[in-house]
């Protein structure tokens, strides 16, 4: 897991944490699935250790068979996820690394969950599936996701982002004709719906089952 610079960075992005699968360098002709992971509000700033300690990067580092390239950008202090900056990062990753273009996945938690919804709504063609966790977004903008595989997570007792945010977005996707939406709502757990989600091996099997 290494720190990397975003070239030609815009807005709120300068650095990201990169994880490469253990067999990446040994198989130079192989293309690997990619996960882009957007952190929450508490990890903003210029200390990449804040994002390294989150559940998904830790899972990737500790799992013996984690076969994804994982990219975890960090927002600058007092900024929010913005699509132009993220698109610069996206293009850089596809240029620099052996990514399977049919297996590109977007996930995020809390503020990052909002980022997932907003980015996927305006650029659904970029992703094979999305996993927004305890986030929210513009319900009226959701029909571009009518064909997007999604697994949404939220806790019913979330005190920071109302569970109604995810419920409304899931309903909007289904109302637009999307029949490939999974929704996991736990009765308790507060704002943290991500630890259980990212430590569940079924999530990664589900991601791999979805290709563009």
From TrEMBL:
Keywords from the UniProt entry: Signal
Keyword Transcription listed: no
The keyword Signal belongs to this UniProt entry's keyword annotation: yes
Domain of life according to the entry: Bacteria
TM regions (residue ranges): none
InterPro entries: AB_hydrolase_fold, Plant_Biomass_Hydrol_Est
Protein's name according to its UniProt entry: Phospholipase
């Amino acid at each position: 897991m290494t720190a990397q610079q975003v070239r030609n960075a815009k807005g709120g992005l300068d650095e990201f944490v990169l994880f490469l699968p253990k067999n990446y360098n040994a198989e130079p002709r192989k293309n690997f699935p990619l996960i882009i992971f957007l952190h929450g509000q508490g990890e903003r700033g210029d200390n990449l250790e804040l994002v390294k300690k989150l559940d998904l990067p830790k899972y990737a580092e500790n799992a013996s068979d984690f076969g994804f390239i994982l990219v975890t950008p960090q927002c600058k202090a007092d900024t929010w996820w913005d699509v132009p900056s993220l698109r610069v990062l996206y293009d850089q990753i596809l240029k620099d690394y052996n990514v399977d273009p049919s297996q590109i996945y977007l996930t995020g938690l809390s503020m990052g969950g909002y980022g997932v919804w907003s980015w996927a709504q305006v650029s659904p063609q970029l992703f094979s599936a999305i996993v927004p966790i305890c986030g929210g977004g513009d319900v009226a903008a959701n029909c571009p996701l009518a064909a997007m595989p999604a697994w949404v997570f939220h806790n019913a007792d979330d005190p920071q982002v109302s569970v109604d945010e995810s419920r409304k977005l899931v309903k909007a996707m289904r109302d637009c004709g999307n029949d490939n939406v999974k929704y996991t709502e736990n009765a308790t757990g507060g704002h943290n719906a991500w630890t259980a989600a990212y430590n569940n091996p079924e999530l990664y099997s589900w991601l791999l089952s979805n290709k563009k």
